[in-house]
Amino acid sequence: MWAPKPVVTREVTREVYHEAGIKYRDWTASVVFLWAIIIAFRFTALGTHSFEGYILAGFGLASVGVLRYFIFRIR
Question: Which residue in 22, 27, 19 sits closest to 69, CA to CA?
């Protein structure tokens, strides 16, 4: 159980843990942008009748979907 310290010193201050001190990068915009590029590539491959490009774009969408899932699970 937490008990208050009688005197506030530097050591006591450094032992305090709070969520505001944790810094992280938000990669959400990057993942959404990558997802949009892959979707555009997929429609371009579909329009040019490039079956290989369509398969690669589908694989890319699946990869980014898995990446997105894990990024949002970590947050």
Answer: 27
The pTM score is 0.56
Picking from 36, 26, 14, 9, the residue whose alpha carbon sits closest to that of residue 75 is 26
Q: Which residues contact 57 (CB under 8 A, 6 or more apart)?
A: 38, 39, 41, 42, 45
C-alpha pair distances (Å), 11 with each of 5, 14, 43, 71: 11, 5, 59, 35
Is residue 35 within 8 A of residue 68, CB to CB? The reply is: yes
Q: Which pLDDT does position 1 carry in this prediction?
A: 57
